[in-house]
Amino acid sequence: MPRHVTYSVQAPSAVVMVRPHYFTVNTETAIDNLFQSSPDTTDDLSRAAYDEITRAADVLRSHGVNVHLFDDTGTETPDSVFPNNWFSTHAGGHVAIYPMKAVSRRRERRSDVIEMLKTRYRVQEVIDYSGLEPDGLFLEGTGAMVLDHIDRVAYAARSDRTDPIALERFSTHFNFEPMVFDARDGNGVAVYHTNVLMCIATDFAMIGLEMMTDAARRREVVLRLERSGRGVIALTNDQIASFSGNALELQGNAGRILALSTTAFASLSRDQRNTIEESAELVALDIPTIERAGGSVRCTLAGIHLTPR
Question: Which residues form a coiled coil (predicted)?
């Protein structure tokens, strides 16, 4: 099975993960996140989620990914396991901090994570967009945007969590071209985060094309990805519901890997798996409890695109 061992700016070799001691399905975000499901007791969910993140971090480390694992011991941040929404990092030493729609999610922002980045990596600037929250302008990080670090495009599905003004500011600061589209599920409900239906890797992209409501825009997105040299893997609505679009390419010690959940892996066809494995090893992480909160593997990983000190 061929593997690319050359470095790709699309695939970070290090991530931040947050291990929860208190985990439950966030009722504040359930209004527009239809991927969530009703909770059992909080204690049962917390124990399971803690164990799932611990095991996932161990698996990624076994493949050579540098995992910076933080613990969240508070009780006011039920979604802290999804750090990719409140910050992102970028080549050249840049860090962005994002405005979050839910008040409970704003409490997830942690100075110790930013200080770790400054200590372990070369950080030139931190741009904090959280001051946009009082004006109702939200941009929930790499949940709201799926970033093509090679072609410099920020793909974004319109939603209350992806404000066009905030997106334009980010794109100007970080040198991305915004490419916005409308996306709805099979019931006509707008998709709340772009990264549930789209994953961009170095050599391929996985997209829920059926969800993109404008045919012309859909063709533009596909053409743009193909022009960047990527094969486009179309995902069905059922596969999206199984979190197959919520994956992240990472750099391992033996080549690139695609981290995704066991739920997502099971939903992929043999042909789709074969296409992915031409350039990246599929690494399935078992996180069924965490998926009940409406996010999957990609949401649990904040990629580090910074140069180590």
Answer: none
Q: Say how many domains are in the chain.
A: 1
Domain CATH number, residue 131? 3.75.10.10
Q: State the SS3 of 253-306.
A: CCEEEEEEEHHHHHHCCHHHHHHHHCCCEEEEECCHHHHCCCCCCHHHCEECCC
Instruction: Estimate to the nearest angstrom the gap between the alpha carbon of 251 and the chain centroid.
Output: 16
Tell me, yes or no, whether 274 lies in a domain. Answer: yes
pLDDT tens-digit readout, 123-175: 999 999 999 999 999 999 999 999 999 999 999 999 999 999 999 999 999 99
- Whether 46 is covered by a domain: the verdict is yes
The Cα–Cα gap between 119 and 114 comes to: 9
Task: Pick the closest to residue 287 from 87, 43, 45 (CA basis).
Answer: 45
- Structure token digits, residue 133: 């929250």
Residue 50 domain boundaries: 14-303
CA 170 to chain centre: 17
